[in-house]
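Query structure, 617 tokens:
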């Protein structure tokens, strides 16, 4: 084994990696990094494999850039290093992960062996002398210096000041995979949080002290609504916090606190790393006090599912169902997880079984409608519509109204019918992101700029956080002004969209949809070169990804540049994947007005018209 260090990094982190390399070399450490040696030549691949096989330490550089890139040569390097650890004795120093930004170790998309050792944080690659000394000590032949995670000490977490301590890998199962598309989360996420048809679960524990029990009852009342709002959840969150302060050994209190936190994930209000960690912490506390606590299992299953650990989420839900078969939401959640895994028949069977068991539960039929909607089979849209009608016959439910309007407009092309359905919303329910964005969308499809502006005035929020419409409100306002021939006002709104999206990109540079929406706002302002720079990485992500939704943004970008050929090619990849991207909406959506009359787009329209004709009875 050589005394050299192998530095593995994504190309976007080259500057940070170079700083680390220079600091280590300055400390007298041999580093395999030189780009001229590692990035070219006929024997490049063989050379890298040899160096990983022979290096003394392997330092993977982890960041938001590695998080965003699901494919890359650095991932092969990481796998080769991970494979080598299987041949090493316990305690042998080899892996020394370095994080150059705020990426969380427990949330990182890395091999499991990386999470079992201590990480070092070197912001932007700024490397103190102590790190070089540590590396030299680890490279001493025969060294068995412990690089695995230290246990907690009396004063707190173990490790040096630069290191980031983590829980053991076996306790991190639900935090080991990447985040899945938020669009899917939102599509499945509108249901009643605690709708039950039976009594307390068999694992019920003794009653809490009076004040704590009352606080939990009030929290449950906030969450036990068909249309729970963020305000309801905020109140419930505070009530649960007070309850666990009064009854810190109550599994019931910790489980409800975990559930309230998980509801933010369920509704796509907040899927942040902190929110997920809070869910995990509170649910684990509940399960430590009572291993048979179904509500805690439900909360943990959401974190698992959100991060792509679907088999583990399924197993946890099945155990919860066995403990409490009278909780309808557990079976509904299981159906959603099965569909995410691509097991549509099993998912539908679970959904239908839930309808059989809980025939008076409106949310059972609502979730069944979502299963039909997410089957990617246009013929199932009519079945979804029937389920939504059943939901609404049982109880007023704004999300069911909105999804019914979505089907009428997207699947049937019945914009007037969709508008009549939207008009059934109570005034208080017309100001949510989904309600406002749907109303603006319908206004655009009906070429009614005044309706778009009237809907926009219902909320002061500049950015919609919704699974169907995620982005700046001003984009749709700009299109409305464009339709009305008010180009100066349209340009003002495109500038506003640019400003809003830039702030989101700054906060989360790994978000491809925001990056593409920045390119869209620039393209529609006529700033083609700037837009092209922004779109290049997003286009690569769309091509490499398994989801087609990014092609919808790419099509809008090309529409802004007037490139009908590329826009049509992108639309062919995503058209009819979701109810807002359909043949029916293509006909009148003003996003494509710049392309109408061009041969490539007219050919796409002809294909869409032919499909519509074939679907008619």
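Result returned for the query:
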């Amino acid at each position: 084994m050589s005394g050299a260090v192998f530095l593995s990094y994504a190309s976007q982190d080259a500057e940070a990696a170079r700083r680390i390399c220079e600091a280590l070399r300055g400390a007298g450490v041999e580093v395999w990094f030189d780009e001229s040696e590692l990035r070219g030549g006929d024997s490049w691949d063989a050379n890298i494999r040899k160096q990983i096989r022979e290096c003394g330490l392997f330092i993977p550089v982890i960041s938001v850039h590695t998080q965003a890139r699901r494919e890359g040569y650095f991932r092969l390097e990481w796998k080769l290093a991970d494979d080598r650890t299987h041949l090493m004795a316990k305690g042998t120093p080899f892996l020394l992960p370095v994080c150059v930004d705020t990426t969380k170790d427990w949330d990182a998309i890395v091999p499991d062996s990386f999470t079992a050792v201590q990480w070092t944080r070197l912001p932007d690659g700024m490397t103190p002398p102590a790190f070089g000394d540590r590396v030299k000590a680890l490279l001493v032949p025969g060294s068995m210096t412990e690089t695995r995670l230290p246990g907690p000490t009396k004063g707190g977490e173990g490790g040096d000041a630069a290191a980031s301590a983590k829980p053991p890998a076996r306790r991190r199962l639900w935090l080991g995979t990447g985040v899945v598309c938020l669009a899917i989360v939102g599509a499945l996420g509108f249901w009643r949080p605690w709708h039950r048809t039976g009594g307390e679960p068999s694992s019920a524990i003794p009653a809490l002290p009076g004040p704590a029990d009352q606080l939990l009852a009030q929290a449950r009342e906030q969450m036990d609504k068909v249309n729970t709002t963020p305000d309801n959840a905020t109140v419930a969150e505070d009530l649960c916090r007070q309850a666990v302060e009064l009854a810190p050994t109550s599994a019931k209190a910790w489980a409800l606190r975990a559930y309230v936190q998980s509801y933010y994930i369920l509704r796509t209000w907040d899927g942040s790393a902190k929110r997920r960690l809070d869910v995990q912490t509170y649910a684990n506390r509940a399960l430590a006090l009572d291993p048979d606590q179904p509500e805690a299992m439900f909360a943990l299953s959401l974190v698992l599912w959100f991060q792509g650990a679907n088999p583990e989420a399924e197993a946890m839900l099945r155990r919860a169902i066995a403990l409490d078969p009278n909780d309808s939401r557990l079976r509904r959640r299981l159906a959603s997880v099965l569909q995410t895994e691509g097991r549509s028949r099993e998912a539908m069977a679970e959904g239908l079984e839930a309808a059989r068991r809980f025939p008076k539960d409106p949310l059972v039929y609502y979730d069944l409608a979502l299963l039909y909607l997410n089957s990617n089979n246009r013929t199932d849209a009519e079945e979804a519509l029937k389920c939504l009608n059943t939901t609404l016959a049982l109880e007023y439910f704004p999300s069911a109204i909105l999804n019914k309007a979505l089907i009428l407009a997207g699947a049937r092309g019945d914009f007037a019918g969709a508008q009549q359905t939207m008009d059934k919303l109570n005034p208080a329910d017309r100001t949510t992101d989904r309600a406002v964005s749907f109303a603006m969308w319908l206004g655009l499809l009906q070429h009614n700029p005044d309706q778009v502006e009237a809907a926009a005035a219902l909320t002061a929020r500049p950015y919609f956080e919704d699974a169907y419409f995620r982005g700046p409100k001003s984009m749709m306002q700009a299109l409305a002004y464009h339709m009305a021939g008010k180009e100066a006002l349209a340009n003002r709104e495109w500038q506003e969209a640019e400003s809003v999206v830039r702030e989101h990109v700054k906060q989360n540079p790994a978000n491809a949809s925001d990056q593409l929406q920045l390119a869209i706002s620039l393209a529609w302002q006529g700033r083609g070169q700037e837009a092209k720079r922004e779109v290049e990485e997003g286009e690569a992500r769309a091509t490499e990804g398994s989801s087609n939704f990014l092609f919808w943004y790419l099509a809008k970008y090309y529409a802004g540049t007037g490139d009908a050929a590329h826009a049509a090619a992108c639309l062919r990849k995503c058209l009819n994947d979701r109810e807002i991207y359909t043949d029916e909406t293509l006909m009148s959506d003003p996003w494509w007005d710049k392309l109408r009359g061009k041969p490539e787009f007219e050919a796409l329209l002809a294909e869409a018209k032919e499909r519509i004709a074939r679907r008619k009875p």
